[in-house]
Hints:
Blueprint: E1 2-3, E2 12-14, H1 16-38, E3 43-49, H2 53-68, E4 72-78, H3 84-95, E5 102-105, H4 115-121, H5 133-141, H6 149-162, E6 169-173, H7 180-189, E7 193-197, H8 204-209, E8 213-216, E9 234-237, E10 241-242, E11 254-255, H9 260-263, E12 269-270, H10 277-297
Parallel strand pairs: 2-12, 3-4, 3-5, 6-7, 6-8, 8-9, 9-12
Antiparallel strand pairs: 1-2, 10-11
Helix pairs in contact: 1-10, 6-7, 6-10
Amino acid sequence: MTCAAPTARAADLLDGKAFALQLREKVGALARDFQARAGRKAGLAVVLVGDDPASQVYVGSKGKATLAANMNSFEHRLPDDVAGEELLALIAQLNSDPAVDGILVQLPLPAHLDEQAVIAAISPDKDVDGFHVINAGRLSVGQAGFVPCTPLGCMMLLTDRLGDLSGLEAVVIGRSNIVGKPMAQLLLDANATVTIAHSQTKNLPEVVRRADIVVAAVGRAEMIGRDWIKPGATVIDVGINRLPPAGGEAKGRLVGDVAFDEVREVAGAITPVPGGVGPMTIAVLLRNTLVAAHRNAGIALAENAL
Ligand code: NAP
């Protein structure tokens, strides 16, 4: 979904907020159909360990969004010092609970817990975050599984804007398991010519200037300036960075990895921060949960409808 640019020169805004709202409405309608066919609601279990304020906000908004999409939300809050065995026992219980279609463990976990072991304990068929190695492997070899929510949301915005990505040059900056690598895989599957850049990449601005599609997933405020961008490129800004408070502000502004105002003068289209990729992540989580519910119940769903 694009909004008309206010001036002839400025890039179009890729309105992730509006796109995500539409996706959530579609998921909600299909979740009602699922309930009628399966005789139960789809269900998402979210596990939060500790009392990190940002994580509490994320978990709260995921719960509300799940209920608003006609699905059950099961929240499990565990203390900061919970033993690893207790967390693994909860995951085992959720794996075998037929009312639970998707399981999400809010990251990061406290340092004494082994994040990889926790992710590995989630049934791959309920791993709606797509972080399990089985799902990473399925994505890599082109089998149906679960794709991490943020890169799948970016792909939806890209295909909505550009249609066929075949032959386009794409540069993904960042190679994390949750954003950069799956993003690159999805672009490759869509027949783009993909470069993955990272902290050791030489001549990064020059590499990025080749790109028709730039996906920035770094975590460095406004690192990407206008002279990095090929005129007309489509720019997806995954980064979420808080600037230090300025001039009487209680909290600093949220910005992306892209210097929005200057890049907007040269790009063809760009996602804002906030209101771009962020809202897509939660909408795709709901989408993945609904897909999991259909698979778990053996009910057909035209997944490309979502
Ligand atoms: P991450 O695990 O910290 O990975 C950052 C990547 O950026 C790494 O691959 C790193 O390279 C690379 N990098 C760091 N400095 C660089 C530099 N100067 N030049 C080029 N590459 C550099 O982060 P992440 O989890 O992927 O998240 C990235 C950003 O996206 C963060 O701001 C995060 O908050 C945001 N995010 C947003 C959403 C959303 O819903 N919108 C979801 C997830 C993440 P090396 O591998 O060489 O270290």
